Every structure is written in structure tokens, then in C-alpha cells.
Amino acid sequence: MERVEVSAPGKLMLFGEHAVVYGRPCIVTAVDHRMRVAVEIADGDNLELYAPDVDVVGYVERMNNLGGKEAPKGTRFVSVAVRNFFNSFGIKSGLKIETRSDFSSEFGFGSSSAVTVGVIKALSEVFEKPLDNKKIFNLSYNTILDVQGVGSGFDVAAAIWGGTIYFVTGGKKIEPLAVSELPLVVGYTGVKADTPTLVRQVANFYEENKGLVGKIFDSVGDITKESRKALLKGDYKRLGKLMDENQVLLEKLRIGSPELSNLILAARKGGAYGAKLSGAGGGDCMIAFVPKDSAKLVEKTIEEKGGKIINVRTGARGVRLED
Ligand code: PMV
């Protein structure tokens, strides 16, 4: 095949962010906003990249110089994914790659992991090197670590498997949960968070006070385990309570923000079962479990506080070939 197109979903962290970096479990759901990646074999020895969502149009890089530090930020995940794939299989070829996203990279929906997974999957199809999910995971996760230095890989797993997943760092455990679509409301604060910075901030706090922060991680881990059970039972009321408890602990980790608190309080006021930030914190999105008949009111109260409602469906399908 000379050209293929694939798509991979974005994600939302439901429970367990940050603690997952320290070996505790988390729960993530894939959302129906997808990243699309088209890969085409080209003559010559260059990678030509079109990623208009991140202002990269017609960027050309030599294959023997992929992932150089001087490359624009928006090209790194693609270049390093190509490099890692080619090195694994001893492939040399020119390529043209185009990426296009259904969602803004500002939301924190995991555009880096979705694009990385999309590139690895598309390359495996174009060069006819069949890879199972675990092999796609390993290549993609190593790419994320090469570019970003930190991360549990939960977002990579969501992009590959889709659905709703109970996850332990580095893919030590990837358990797809048999749950239906979740009654979630998602509010964007309008503030872009930088995940590696927040992960480092929590790491510094942990270094300063291992006892206290370690206990917070343990409690987050316990909440995540409880949430897994509640999810399997479809007990959204309980899940709301667990979200509120998780949020208290995230604030103790000092990754809350006034904008997040405003929207979370608004959601509770509007009748949500419970609400919390989702992801690294400091900005990006908050999420709330809501009774069906309160969803509209919750959305309205969030908007009144300056949040932008993002319509998502949870449990979206994992990476797949497009016709
Ligand atoms: O900012 P996001 O949505 O990519 O979430 C980061 C979640 C962390 O647990 C803080 C980091 C990680 O890789 O697990």
C-alpha cells in the first residue's frame, strides 16, 4: 500500500492523574474527537509534514536528522515516531505525512499521544509490518518518553484500545472496562496547561515531603480502585462522590486553579453528582458526572462562570484504519 489514513481518539482522565506516575492506577476514557493521520510513501530521503492545526505546513526534514532539537515543537512527535519505527524495522524511505484533528490541541485531549499512535499504526500498515496493540503501545510510549521525558502512557493506551480503561503506568496493566457511555459534562477553562511542567511541580513537592505526598497518592489510588467498581455497577451517584474526593486530593497536590475551582463549584451547584479537574491540572478541562435530567442546567451554570462546554461521547473506538 502506498498511502493509508488512520484515526485515533482523544481522551479524558477520569480518576487517578499524577498518582498514576507513581505506580497507582488511573481510569481513562477515549472520546469521539479524533486525530487523523495520512501517511504516503515518497521518493527521496525526506519527511514532508503537513499539520495545519499546529501551524506546520510543508515542513521538510532529512530522514537522517529526525527529531533534532531545533525542529519546531509541532513536528516532534511525528518525526520521533517515524525515527523509532524505521529504526525498529531497518526501513529507509521518503514519506509525506498529513495530520488533522477534530479537536483543538488546547483542550488537553491528548493530541500528542493520538498523533504518535496514529503515525505508528499508519506506518505499520504502509510498510506491511503488522503490530499488535501492545507493540504499538511500546513504540508509541517510547516516542512520548523520547520527546517529553515524562508520562505514564495512559493517553497512549486510550488512543490504541479506545473504550474506558483501568491503567497502571507504562502499560503494566491495561484493563478495558465493560461500561456503557458515561453521563459526563466537560467544561474547558480557556487556560492551556503544560503537562510536563505540572508533572515536575508535583515531583518537586514529592521530593520535599515524600511522607505526605506519598499518602495522598495512596488515597488517590484507593479512590481509583473504588471508582472501577462503581463504574462496573453504573453507580454514577457514587462516582460523583468519588470525583469530589479525588478533587480534594488534587488540590492538596497544589495543581488546582481558580478557573477550575469556579467551574467545578458551578457544576455541583447545577446539580452534578460530583466534579473534578481532568488531566495535569492548572487549566485545561474539568469533568462532572451528572444525572441525565440535570445535564442542561449543569452546562448552563458552567457557561455562566466562563467555561466552554465541549460535547463528547465517551468510550470511543481505538485507533483504526479509515477508508
Ligand atoms: O494533561 P494530561 O491530560 O495529558 O494528563 C496528564 C496526567 C498525568 O497523570 C499528570 C501525567 C501522566 O502521564 O499520567
Automatic annotation (TrEMBL):
Pathway: Isoprenoid biosynthesis; isopentenyl diphosphate biosynthesis via mevalonate pathway; isopentenyl diphosphate from (R)-mevalonate: step 1/3
Keywords: ATP-binding, Cytoplasm, Kinase, Lipid biosynthesis, Lipid metabolism, Magnesium, Nucleotide-binding, Transferase
GO BP terms: isopentenyl diphosphate biosynthetic process, mevalonate pathway
Residues annotated as domain GHMP kinase N-terminal: 78-163
GHMP kinase C-terminal domain span: 228-305
Single GO cellular component term: cytosol
SUPFAM superfamilies given in the database record: GHMP Kinase, C-terminal domain (SSF55060), Ribosomal protein S5 domain 2-like (SSF54211)
Entry-linked Pfam families: GHMP_kinases_C, GHMP_kinases_N
InterPro entries: GHMP_kinase_C_dom, GHMP_kinase_C_sf, GHMP_kinase_N_dom, Mev_gal_kin, Ribosomal_Su5_D2-typ_SF, Ribsml_uS5_D2-typ_fold_subgr
Superkingdom of source: Bacteria
Gene Ontology molecular function: ATP binding; mevalonate kinase activity
PANTHER family referenced in this protein's UniProt entry, alphabetically: MEVALONATE KINASE (PTHR43290)
NCBIfam families: mevalon_kin (TIGR00549)
Name this protein carries in UniProt: Mevalonate kinase
Organism: Candidatus Woesebacteria bacterium RIFOXYA1_FULL_40_18
Lineage: Bacteria, Candidatus Woeseibacteriota
